[in-house]
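--- STAGE predict ---
source: upstream dedup step, 1 unique chain passed
mode: sequence only
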Amino acid sequence: MSDGFEEERQITAASALAQLPRAGGKRYAVLFRHGSLQLQVFAPRGRDTQRPHTRDEIYVVLKGTGTYAIGDRRLPFKAGDCLFAAAGEEHRFEDFTEDFATWVFFYGPEGGEARRPPAAPGPEQDAE
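--- STAGE serialize ---
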């Protein structure tokens, strides 16, 4: 992991994808850490074999399409979509295209952040 993000404040999709191992082994690369935040790029091939993680995570799809399986739900996704998995939640990518790749943002404490009741609507949330 380079310190380029610390200096430049930017990681391009191309440079992130270039850090993935080429053959065999893991299909992710850790790109950046700051406090509780960890940024990775993930590009499974053939089958997604990940298991539930100990921290909350957000995926932002870089490229490709497929289905995001979370619990008993199946959600179609495409490039640009944002997906969430709470710590410990069963999830995986299914039926994805060969070019599928996603940013992964792990954050918060081990065990995930506590669920909070919905906030009361504020001025920015009021209906038009």
